[in-house]
Amino acid sequence: MTVDGFFRLEATMKLPMPRGPITDQLLFELRAAPHPFTIKSAHSADSAIGDEDLQLALFACYELHYQSFDGVDDEWEWYLSLLALREKLEERLAQKLAPVPLRPHVSAASVPQELKQLVATADSGPPLSGFLHKTASLEQFREFVMHRSIYHLKEADPHTWGIPRLYGPAKAALVEIQADEYGGGRAERMHSELFRTTMCALELDDSYGAYLDQVPAVTLAISNVMSMFGLHRRYRGALLGHLAAFEMTSSLPNFKYSEGLRRLGGGARARRFYDEHVQADAVHEQIAVHDMCGSFADAHPNLAGDILYGADCALTLDRMFAEHVMNCWTKGVTSLREEYPEAGPR
């Protein structure tokens, strides 16, 4: 685990356990040198968001662009067979992001106000942050942190893909936000490192991707949608809207997370990750809405609707995650995957 003044040198994770026929074959192929392959089935009857096999397959494809996996050849990152599979999976995810609406006709000038209206009227689902603030047990808080570790240990990375695709005020605004996310150039202040501190305080494994096998599809979907937006130029407007929704809805929940952790005995260092977001995201909200999204919409009025679409996606997935966690906890069961069968013999 992380110790004061020292950071993990390794960032890769082990290949996860398969969750169906797609990942059974994909993860088998990734263990070998890059070679042509086809997946027999890339479809299932499940909802794309709740499809364990699809979400894990997409996560594995995307992870090759981040820290990758132990023993996987870096040449896989841009190998055509892998990209062909990813394209099929992305198409299904994009088609099934219902009930997220597409917004083709939005005036550029109205984007900041429409973002505010969207956030103000969105159904946030069960009061997860309130439960963690007032009621959650230490084990439930630890479980919540295990979910969030899938994204927070690479926090900001998906949205950073947008920087080279922007110019002018929108680019400068995104860089300003991301600079804070990366600690202003100080490694110990990077938000990913602050989250490691929280994990260590809760006696959790802070290894990159340590809980990948335990988290369900909806947790993976949150990261996957960010990666899909970040890795495709055509989604650059949606990426900015997604980030704006994150910043606009972050301060109050993070205050409640910090106070909940305080109630459970967490000290100042353990809570610093959440406290940092209370302060930073209140500032980031204004930058994201006006300087980033507003400027981008002015420069690309034909993409104004994409900004709101991306914000819709962020809000919808956060609601679905809250529903999953709270439904499980209400029933007295874990929100993590309790069993994940090992792959059969090949």
From TrEMBL:
Domain of life (superkingdom): Bacteria
Pfam families listed in its UniProt record: Haem_oxygenas_2
Protein's name according to its UniProt entry: Iron-containing redox enzyme family protein
Species for this entry: Planotetraspora mira
